[in-house]
Amino acid sequence: MSSRRQLEPRTADDDRAFPADPRLLIERHQGMVYSVALRMTGSPELAEEIAQDTFLQALKRQKEFRGQARVSTWLYSIVRNRCIDELRRRAAPVVPLHPGLPSREASAEVQLGERREAAHAQQLLLSLPESQREAFVLRHVEELEYEEIARRCETTVGNVKVRVHRARETLARKLSEER
After folding, report:
1. Residue 121: pLDDT band with limits 50, 70, 90
2. Is the model's pTM score more than 0.85?
3. If 132 and its partner were Cys, which of 14, 74, 167, 170 is the partner (CB 3.0–4.6 Å)?
4. Angle ∠(23,97,86) on CA atoms, nearest 5
5. Is 25 helix (H, G, I), strand (E, B) or coil?
């Protein structure tokens, strides 16, 4: 008797199976793709453009997907690389900040304060080196486990932990300098 696991056929709901209908691909992953693009660029407009381009690239390169990783991991690598390329292409980008959405019940003064805090947090995130920002966002915003982050970033768990730790230290230092 072999100790190897029998591979089960992939189903349409399996994240390792590429959906036959492109609409399903977009419906299942548009939130993650847009969120990653927004957090990496800080611009809703650029994030939307990158998200659309990510899905176009994925559909064009569908035959390259071999099912060895999850579709979400594969899409993440596309959106990540597209963001990095775009940020590098823009040399010194002027990045509009995404202020977040304050609660409707809050007063105008509270809403303004919430927007300023969100804009400031976005500025701090954008000040981090790309690798630290990416690891920090995936860990603390997307709430992924270190192992999944390592797969998405194509690095080791130890390296991810170092990046997240350094990002925390940098953000803490910058916040303490402001006080």
Report:
1. confident
2. no
3. 167
4. 60
5. helix
